[in-house]
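Exam revision sheet. Question 4 asks you to relate a sequence to its structure. Input first:
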Amino acid sequence: MKVMIISVGGTPDPLIESIKKRKPDFVYFIASQETNHIIGEIVANADLNIEMHKTSIVEDAESIIETYEVSRDIIRNIKKEHPNAKIFINHTGGTKSMSAGVVLAGSEYGCSFVYVGGKERNKRGIGIVTKDMIVKDEQYPYYLIAEKNLMDAVDYFNRYQYETCVNILRDIISKLTDNSEKSKQLRITATILWDFIILIGSIDRFKFRKIRYHGQDKYALAIVGDILKRLEMIGFSSDILKNVDGYLKRSKGYLSGLQEGKSEIVLCELLNNASRRISEGKYDDAVARLYRAFELIAQIKLQGYELNDLSEGKFTLGDLEDRGIDVEKYKDCVDEKGKLKLGLKKKFELLKDLGWNKVNGIYLDNRRIQGLLSKRNESILAHGLKPIDEKSAIDLFSEVEKIAKNMVKDYDELKERGKFPTL
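Answer key, structure tokens:
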């Protein structure tokens, strides 16, 4: 379906000519009170029936903003009712302000443009075309807007708003339909960035292994390899893609550790994730992650005693008896399969029984961290109704990270490798 939006001035002939030449299925006229009467002449001479046109009136023909708003609403309605419609903006008629307003709206929505020109004009050659009219078509170079929209997408990415970022990129890709070199480059940049966000967004949601990627479940490293390969083939420079390339190459080993479920690297990622949530002001979410990180510290330490608390193959009372542990206080933690399911406090009590001499200072006698962790239990995301405040989240982060640094070799380096890039 072809739709033409026309700004109407005092001369109907150029507008009639454009309708005859381009043969739209429907025409929207935008007129002022002074030019509304011209529409009847245009309709009659362009052979438009009553079902093929509508008219909108702007009260102030010298207002760019009013014409823009009227035009924008018309375009939105067309796209809502006819998503695949081809929209042409004819900005030949009307005041300069009306022409500017309708062009601004058409530019924002990637419309094509129609202008009626010619060799012979009135007003000493600079007024309205009077003879030998030429109907000129021009596709608006959407890449001018796409560049700005791409930077908006980058801004949302840097603020961890991945869904919004993807929606902007989807819009960019769908509208960059011309074959100019600039449009091709922007389309490639937007497409690769979209795929990168699939990876990053999945990691942010703790999907470290299988990720839905172009309709298939892919390993994280397979996606990394695919993006890096495409980046190698690009024949143009893009600061955004350079940052993507740098992150993937720098963090490949880190992402491999996440994919393999290495507990020390997962611990680093939990802290990175908590840091992102704090920066967003999502303190309850941050503390939930920090609580899990603190529990993971106990589970990592239990692994050092060859006691598995991270999979279905959990240890049993018999495993504790083999290590000379008095199992009486752990009997009520046995599940239906005979495996031990220990809460946070019981995990640290077991570590004390196993001989870990730091356990009192880390948790059992550490009133500060016990108080901070209790706020998680009282929060609305756990068992209470109290929201977590910023100070509590930051303080708990500091305490958990202090322990993590002593638990994980090269913690600072690993955590930095896993830190999401700023594009």
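Marking note for examiners. The longest strand covers residues 129-139.
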